[in-house]
Amino acid sequence: MLDYHTGWPFFLVVLSKLVLLTVTLVSIYFLRPVWLILAWTWYRTWRAGLKKHHLKITDELQIAYLERKGNMANSEVLLFVHGFTGDKAIFCDVVRYLPTNYHVILIDLPGHGESKPNDDKSDYRPSVLVDYVHKFVKAYGFGDRKLCMIGSSMGGAIAGIYAARYSDESLSSVVLVCPAGIHSPEVTEFLKKSHDDLGKNVEGSVLLPNTTQEFNDMLHLVMYHKINMPSNIAMAFLELKQMKADVHKKVMSDMKIDGEYLMLDKVLEEIQHPVLCVWGENDQILHVSGSIVIKQRVKNAEIHVLDRCGHAVTLDRPRKLVKIITRFLEKVTTTT
Predict the structure, then answer these.
(1) DSSP 8-class letter at 60
(2) Alpha carbon 188 to chain centroid, angstroms
(3) Please, what are the domains in the chain?
(4) Sign of the C-alpha dihedral, residues 182, 183, 188, 189?
(5) 152 contacts 81 by C-beta, under 8 angstroms
(6) pLDDT tens track for 7-33
(7) Which uninterrupted H or E stretch holds 330?
(8) Checking DSSP bridges between strand 62-68 and strand 51-56, what pairing results, if any?
(9) Which residues form the AB hydrolase-1 domain (predicted)?
(10) pLDDT tens, 278-287?
């Protein structure tokens, strides 16, 4: 039983704090929902055991990255490379399910996230982004540890080009998740409608939304599992995206230079490392038939097509993706 003199005052103190917390959260939701997104991103990073770092390579090049060190001195390194308009946090839900024996690094590509250069005047051609990643690998220094590079979408193109261009002793395997840069036998409706975005109408791309409706349309396009996002939260995501809109437009524009958007297609036969390709069966951005091209033209490729999965595999099927990646890495380890 509550003591009349001590129980009720304590109850009222707790109740008042709960009311204050509720009012604060409601106020943030309606007035500054961006703070909720930033808090959620921080929580996902913390939950995955990741810590943020910056590596200054030159005065012009600085790479921001999240890192979770492995539990062994010689842990294999998994280097994750995100796609167009994404950032390092997109892989947090994947890292959460990865065994702790892997040393995990998630980088922000220049023109994205917190890395530099990050302006609308710099060069963001895929071939240049590959060089940036190579400079990061060299500057970080992995010694004699094995390195697996895992890239999604544009990041997949970068990982594949990296494997073809830089045969570093540390690089042991590559994982391509719905990789861009391939001339597929079939083309999605998205690419048919937005082909001119690479040259004429960058502002019109659905991947560069200007309204909350366009933002939700983008989500429905990249994910198989549909999300009905409240308008306030959608507006907050849009606000964050539009902070980098000019830079992202420059990144997209640079893809058109000398056919850079098909750069991976030009070097597939040059990839000698074991390759894992994972593609969403319901990908509406890049057609799943691209996996057939990789199977036919890459010497040592393993292909997995996931059902009930769109372009954003890291959001649609993170646990399944981790299972496939870990089995692939175990297989590579036993055969090398």
Answers:
(1) S
(2) 21
(3) 34-335 (3.40.50.1820)
(4) positive
(5) yes
(6) 556 666 666 667 665 655 555 555 567
(7) helix 318-335
(8) antiparallel
(9) 77-318
(10) 999 999 999 9
